[in-house]
Write a structure and sequence with these properties.
It is a single chain. By secondary structure, this protein is an alpha/beta fold. Helix content is 24%, strand content 35%. The protein has 5 helices and 12 strands. A 7-stranded mixed sheet has the order 2-1-3-4-12-11-10. Strand 10 and strand 11 form a beta hairpin. It is globular, with a radius of gyration of 15 Å. The two termini are 12 Å apart. Bound molecules: glutamine.
Length: 189
């Protein structure tokens, strides 16, 4: 198995470190040519969604990746990655691929609570550590979206077929279970 990690901006290296712990091969996707290398799953990291969105467009990577996701490529978006996959963003135009039937709110916890840590239940896994950094949350989901985690009454993780998103950063903890969940998604796809 080979996982591509979108490495245009943000916390991409940390995802690689977790995949190393799981013994899963990975490489960084930095330009359009890298999309021609074979990979079975894609991670879209946290960072600044507007910047990553702009770079994806400039580097002509938005459409090819969007098509792959629509054709079933397993994809895991954390934080800014969640925003790039969202079909709708509250009060703004969609920023990225817009392939997942969710409405997200950006910087949703306000300035005071910009960053925080908590532990909450993740469906089928149990209590996991959750690190939030100027995070979004999911305001609304369609019927085809499965809610996987709710924290403080806000939806913070969800799945729609081949697409997995978390508002928090599992790559910033030593807990490998969410990445393992994604690896299993790839194995069963
Ligand atoms: N606030 C960022 C955005 O709107 C997301 C933050 C993150 O990925 N940690 O894109």
């Amino acid at each position: 198995m080979q996982i591509g990690i979108l490495a245009l901006q943000g916390a991409f290296a940390e995802h690689g470190a977790i995949l190393d712990q799981l013994g899963v091969d990975h490489f960084e996707i930095r330009n359009r040519e890298h999309l021609h290398l074979p990979f079975d799953g894609l991670i879209i990291p946290g960072g600044e969604s507007t910047v990553i969105g702009k770079l994806l467009t400039e580097l002509q990577m938005m459409e090819p990746i969007k098509q792959e996701i629509e054709h079933g490529l397993p994809v895991f978006g954390t934080c800014a990655g969640l925003l790039l996959l969202s079909k709708k963003i509250e009060g703004e135009n969609a920023l990225g691929f817009g392939t997942m039937d969710i409405l997200a709110k950006r910087n949703a916890y306000g300035r005071q609570l910009g960053s925080f840590f908590t532990k909450d239940e993740f469906k089928g896994i149990g209590k996991i550590p959750m690190t939030f950094i100027r995070a979004p949350y999911i305001v609304q989901t369609s019927d085809n979206v499965e809610v996987l985690a709710v924290s403080d009454s806000k939806i913070v993780a969800a799945r729609q077929d081949n697409q997995l998103v978390t508002a928090f950063h599992p790559e910033l903890t030593s807990d490998t279970r969410i990445h393992n969940f994604f690896v299993q998604m790839i194995e069963t796809s």
